[in-house]
Amino acid sequence: MNVRLNPYIGFRDEAREALAFYHSVFGGELSMMTFAEGGMPHDPAEENRIMHGQIDAPNGMTLMISDTPSGMDMQAGSNISISLSGDDVSLLRSYWEKLVADGQVSMPLETAPWGDMFGMLSDRFGITWMVNIAGQGH
């Protein structure tokens, strides 16, 4: 049996834009279903918003995103951080560079006290990302 943990990010009205952005970062297969397509009860004004979106990257990562209906409370980016880690230097640096575009670095990607390269940023949607590149400290 296989078990997988993956982030699921909720937006108010930016899920479609966020999916396009993250798809440009991670590549892979992108799928989207609107509230109208999903057949769930919804405000007619929200029928074209994303009920469920998913990116399945070639390396096995999965990211899920949806729009939160207007009748539900939410605060964007307030209670999620996403961590990318591994030892593929070029791939992780590429993710960092793409995610930081129009975002803000809170901790530069540099050697951390534990010897790895580590950095933190908030992307243009306010989502916090942590990148850890193993074995890169000197």
TrEMBL record:
Stated name of the protein: PhnB protein
Organism domain of life: Bacteria
Pfam families assigned to the protein according to its UniProt record, in alphabetical order: Glyoxalase
CDD domains (alphabetical): PhnB_like (cd06588)
Residues of the Glyoxalase/fosfomycin resistance/dioxygenase domain: 11-131
